[in-house]
Each structure stands twice: as structure tokens, then as C-alpha cells.
Automatic annotation (TrEMBL):
Catalyzes the 2'-O-methylation of the ribose of cytidine 1402 (C1402) in 16S rRNA. GO terms for cellular component: cytoplasm. InterPro entries: 4pyrrol_Mease, 4pyrrol_Methylase_sf, 4pyrrole_Mease_sub1, 4pyrrole_Mease_sub2, rRNA_ssu_MeTfrase_I, SAM_MeTrfase_RsmI_CS. This is Ribosomal RNA small subunit methyltransferase I. Residues 17-217 form the Tetrapyrrole methylase domain. It catalyses: cytidine(1402) in 16S rRNA + S-adenosyl-L-methionine = 2'-O-methylcytidine(1402) in 16S rRNA + S-adenosyl-L-homocysteine + H(+). Keywords: Cytoplasm, Methyltransferase, rRNA processing, S-adenosyl-L-methionine, Transferase. The gene is rsmI. NCBIfam families: 16S rRNA (cytidine(1402)-2'-O)-methyltransferase. Belongs to the methyltransferase superfamily. RsmI family. Pfam families: TP_methylase. One of its GO terms (molecular function) is rRNA (cytosine-2'-O-)-methyltransferase activity.
Length: 241
């Protein structure tokens, strides 16, 4: 049985409230009932890419006013949207996929609202990092989510060196263009026996978890297609499978 629901957590948007809405990372069935209800009834949807969100809403049979809110206009758009909230509009912020504000636009509008004491309501749901962690079998008692590492090898190797003795799992996003390079950097910097997981295409048709020593996972990755989206998890040095 679910707990009683506060007014700001109901399926109906309240005036002046910002809803931070998670959307699927691949499988549309992962959209929550609350996300669906709110996306269909807020005054405005602020989105990273109006075409991506527009086509998601169309597939869901919804039509809403969309406003661009992305890396290039985030600071200015956050203040403008906060003005709209202060004037009484309800707004949902979404990214292309997953949870806004995690390696995605979202932080600035949330901060603008908090600074003005405007209500912010999380609408939780899919997130690539927690999806990978919960099924990888690497330690979950604590983890450090570091987002995307910088593209340059030297910066990634610095990061790995700095955290080589970290007590908790390291959790990272990596692009398909650098995943093979990063897998080799892990072997070279942390050693072939470090336990890692590379999770690919989570919740999608070709969902794959490679879990093993860094050298095993590197070999398996080398034999597979590197197309798709990847999460990288690195266990603490003391962990064995
Ligand atoms: N905010 C999003 C979230 O909550 O999942 C993450 C956005 S970030 C721009 C996109 C990165 O997340 C991808 O490059 C990849 O590293 C990871 N990612 C997103 N969807 C994924 C999926 N279905 N499978 C594996 N990794 C995924």
C-alpha cells in the first residue's frame, strides 16, 4: 500500500511549482504514472531538445507548450522560467533521457527556484547510473558518481590515479567514441585485476553487462560493437567477485 500523498506529490500540477521529471533511458514503459500525468498537464515543459521531447510527448498522445532549456541557454533560461513560476505557471523540466540535472541540464533552474523559495518537486524515475549500479554486482554501500571524465587521456588517467585507493565504487558515464580507450586506460592505470562493470544500452533491446576484471572486460568490449550508451563502474581495489 502506498503512503498518503502530499498535495505537491499528487498527479495534478500546482501553480508556481517546478517538477523535475525523469524520463525513460530507453524503455518507454519505464515512464512513471506520475511523470505521465504531470507531463500532460503542466503549463510548460522545459526541455533539452524540443524535437526529442516533442516526439516523446506525441508518442504518449500528449501536447504541451515546449520551451528550450539546454547547456547553451541554461543560465538565462533558468531565470526566465523562474519568473514564469513566480507568476504562477507550473513547469516540468526534462532532459532528453533520464533524470535532469545529472550530467544533464537542470541544476540551474533548480538553484534559481531554491534561491527564490519557489517549490521544487522531484518526480523520480529512470537514471542510467542507478540502473547500472543496482544490477552490476559491484559494491553499492557507497559510490562516487563523477559524471563524464574530460576527453583528454591525461585528465582521465589523473582521475584514476587520484581515486585508485578510493573505498567505494566509482561510477561514470562514457561516450561510445571513447569507451574502448577508457577501458584500456583502466587496465593500464589500475591494473588488469581491478573489478569493473561496463553496462551498455540499459533497458534497451541490446542491454549488456560486462562484469569481470578490467582485462577481461576490455577483451569482451574489443570483440563487441561499441555503438550505444555506456556506464562504467569501477570497484574498490579490495573487491573480488
Ligand atoms: N541524466 C541522464 C540519466 O539520468 O541517466 C544521463 C545523461 S548523460 C548526458 C548521457 C549518458 O548517460 C550517456 O552518454 C551514457 O553514458 C549514460 N546513459 C544514458 N542512457 C543510457 C543507457 N540506456 N545505457 C547506458 N548508459 C546510458
Amino acid at each position: 500500500m502506498s503512503a498518503p500523498v502530499a498535495a505537491n506529490a499528487s498527479l495534478t500540477p500546482l501553480p508556481g511549482h517546478l517538477y523535475v521529471v525523469a524520463t525513460p533511458i530507453g524503455n518507454m514503459a519505464d515512464l512513471t504514472e506520475r511523470a505521465l500525468a504531470l507531463l500532460g498537464s503542466v503549463d510548460l515543459v522545459a526541455c533539452e531538445d524540443t524535437r526529442t521531447t516533442g516526439s516523446m510527448l506525441t508518442r504518449l498522445g500528449l501536447r504541451r507548450e515546449l520551451v528550450a532549456y539546454h547547456d547553451h541557454n541554461e543560465t538565462e533560461a533558468a531565470e526566465r522560467l523562474a519568473d514564469e513560476l513566480a507568476a504562477g505557471k507550473s513547469i516540468a523540466v526534462v532532459s532528453d533521457a533520464g533524470t535532469p540535472a545529472l550530467s544533464d541540464p537542470g541544476f540551474r533552474i533548480v538553484r534559481a527556484c531554491r534561491r527564490r523559495a519557489l517549490p521544487v518537486v522531484p518526480v523520480p524515475g529512470p537514471c542510467a547510473i542507478t540502473t547500472a549500479l543496482c544490477a552490476a554486482g559491484l559494491p553499492t554501500n557507497g559510490f562516487f558518481f563523477a559524471g563524464f571524465l574530460p576527453p583528454k587521456s591525461a585528465a582521465r588517467i589523473n582521475f584514476l590515479t587520484k581515486y585508485q585507493d578510493f573505498d567505494y565504487t566509482l561510477a561514470l558515464y562514457e561516450s561510445c567514441h571513447r569507451i574502448d580507450k577508457f577501458a584500456r586506460e583502466i587496465v593500464d592505470t589500475l591494473g588488469p585485476d581491478r573489478v569493473v562493470c561496463i553496462a551498455k544500452e540499459l533497458t534497451k533491446l541490446h542491454e549488456t553487462f560486462w562484469v569481470g576484471t578490467a582485462s577481461e572486460v576490455n577483451d569482451r568490449l574489443a570483440q563487441a560493437s561499441r555503438k550505444g550508451e555506456f556506464v562504467v563502474l569501477i570497484a574498490p581495489a579490495s573487491f573480488t567477485l
